[in-house]
Amino acid sequence: MILEITKLGEEILRQKAEPVAEVNDEIRKLAEDMFETMIEANGVGLAAPQVGLSLRMFVAMADDDVKRVFINPQIIKTSEEVGEYEEGCLSIPQVYESITRPVRVTVQALNEKGRPFTLEADGLLARIIQHEYDHLDGILYIDRGDKAFADKTEAQFKKRAERAAEKAREKEAKARKIAAKLAAKEAKKAK
Question: Which one, out of 5, 72, 118, 179, has a CA that is 20 to 30 A from the CA of 32?
């Protein structure tokens, strides 16, 4: 099932997510839905807060096309060597910025079967893990780049949200007006 992706400005993206209490069928279904949502949106990673759930969980699929589920992950080691790469985010569509991160990470987590694992990753997978892990702590990739760029991006998304809310109010008012006219016509007919 395709889930709705939260966008910059929604409160859940700035909150620290809660640990997953139990890896069960519900969590496994959520992982499947997150993969489906991520793939549909042409993403390579997706964290639970991005689909409106305060859970310490994310999915990733790097250039090796292996689907990986990370539940209650902990990054236990990062390389001193760093690299720069242009990042984007499904919660901040069509906005990209060059971000510097460690090129290698070691992460411990539970998989979708509830089994613990340790993974050493480099390249794109290491970057995805760090990006998605940040989501679990309410950190967005724009927070790791230029402050002026982050401020500008947040202001743009706030304006977008305000315009969308105004359009929704206008649409609702129009629908109420039409409903009132229909009700008046029905009332006339009933007389």
Answer: 118
